[in-house]
Structure formats: structure tokens, C-alpha cells
Amino acid sequence: MKKILFLIVIFALTFSFAKAQVLLPPESKPDEELKQDEAELRIKDWQAKIADLESRLKSLNENIVDLTNKLTDYKKKLQDCNQELARLIGATAADIDAFRQKLGVLEGKVRDMKKLPNDELADRKEEVQALENELNTLRTIKIAAMPEFYNRIIDLAREIKGLYRERNIKQYTVKSWFENKDCLWNIAGRLEMLGDPFLWPKIWQANTNLVRNPDIIHPGQVLIIPAKAPKTTDELKAERKYWRQKRAAMEEPVNQGAPTTKKGE
């Protein structure tokens, strides 16, 4: 009898151990292919995951309620702070609303200008200047110091400064000396060109195929205008050679030297 009881206990333990060894089936295994013990394990696994998610959701909802209350409190404090600040600077709610609207309109104008190509912006410097003047006027109002507007105004000033463009002129068609006083010196000195007449050798060296003598250019010639930059070594050498030849020609007897011309004649 004891032997039979012993065998029964061993069998029960073996069965329990075997059942405990049943592993959770892989997720790729379809439900319809599961054995009963595997299906039970999968159901328990999903129930455990659902319970965990519900617990986390409950915790998040509690955090949301807590954060919402804190946000409401902060908004109230900010509103009180703004009201006190408005009182200190002597501004009414209507004044602040009007300022907010003007600043918003100005920001819209700047956004529209930023969409324009560089050449068009270069032709609209006066409009950019007007935007800058308008912003500077707003900055003189005490309301501009309020936290709501301060950083926006700083950012807007930076964006307006970035709207200034210089026209990138690649070519220039020579006009007459009589009407426009066109010569390399005058062309280089124009603000929309190089802005410095002493940079005239740069234009000369960029157009040696057309201009052999920098004193002589002709109406209708299309000159390449290089980017504004210091004169290169080759340009400085060409300039020095030009002035040496110029001085040598001036020192020759009048009856032996060839007549000279002004730049652009």
C-alpha cells in the first residue's frame, strides 16, 4: 500500500513539474495551432499585460490631473504677474492687445519678405528699412519689455537684419562717358558694383579680352563684374605695371609720345 501511495505522489509531482515546464508559445504561432496549456499561458500573459497597462494608465491619469492643476496654478500666477507688470508700465489690457496685434502684423510682413529671392530683396531695401523702423518704434513702447513680447522682438530684429541684400551684379553694359561718366574707376566706385573706385583693376583683369588699355572702354561693351574682395597679387602687379607705363608716357617729349585718353572716352 505504501508503495502504491509513493508511486501516486511521484506521478503527481512529475505531472506538476511537466506542466510547469510548458513555455509561453512564440508570438508567431497562430492561436488555432496552440495546445490547451499553451493557449492558457498566452491568455494569462495577455491578461498580465492588460493589467500592467491599466495600472500605468491609472498612474498617468493621476499625473495628468496633478499637472493640470499645477498648470492652472501657474497660469493664474502668470496672469497676476502680467497684470502687475501692466500696472507698473501704465498699460491697459486694450493697449497690450493693440501692441500684440501690431507685432503680429509686422511678423507676417517679415515672413512674406523672407520668401523673396535675393535680387528682389536687394531692390526693396527701402521696404526692409521701413520694417526695421516700424520694429524700432514698437521697441520704444514699454510694453515691449513684457515677457510675452521680449524674445519675439529680439528674434524679429535678427530676421529683419537678415533681409538686407546686395544685388549680385555679374555683368555691366558700358554707357557713354559724356552722359554717365563711365570709366573703370567710376564703375568700380558705385555702391551697387564694388563700392570702391580703387578696385578698378579687378574689373580690368576680369575683362582683359575686351579691355587692353584700362583708360579706354567703349559704350556697349559688356563687362564682367567680379565679387568684391581685396586685389589679388596678379591684379596688384597689373596695376603697378599700368602706373609705371603711365609715368613713362608722361615723361616722354610731347611730340614723340602718343596722346593719352581718359578712362572711358
Task: Walk me through this protein's architecture.
The chain has 265 residues and is mainly alpha-helical. Among the domains are: 75-161, no CATH class; 171-251, Membrane-bound Lytic Murein Transglycosylase D, Chain A (Roll). Helices cover 63% and strands 2% of the residues. The chain has helices at 2-20, 36-89, 93-114, 118-122, 125-139, 147-161, 177-180, 184-189, 200-206, 233-251; strands at 171-173, 222-224. It has a two-stranded antiparallel ribbon. It is elongated. It starts with a helix and ends in a 14-residue tail after the last helix. The relative contact order is 0.06. The model is unreliable at 255-265 (pLDDT under 50).
Can you summarize this structure?
By secondary structure, the protein is mainly alpha-helical.
Run of helices and strands? HHHHHHEHHHEH
| Count of extended strands | 2
Low-confidence stretches: 255-265
Radius of gyration: 42 Å
Mean pLDDT: 85
Which of globular, elongated, flat, extended, rod-shaped describes the shape? elongated
Quaternary: single chain
End-to-end Cα distance, whole Å, is 136 Å
Please list the strands of the largest sheet in the order they lie side by side: 1-2
Describe the biggest sheet? 2 strands, antiparallel
Structure classification: mainly alpha
The helix tally amounts to 10
Beta-strand fraction estimate:
under 5%
Specify the helix fraction band.
55-70%
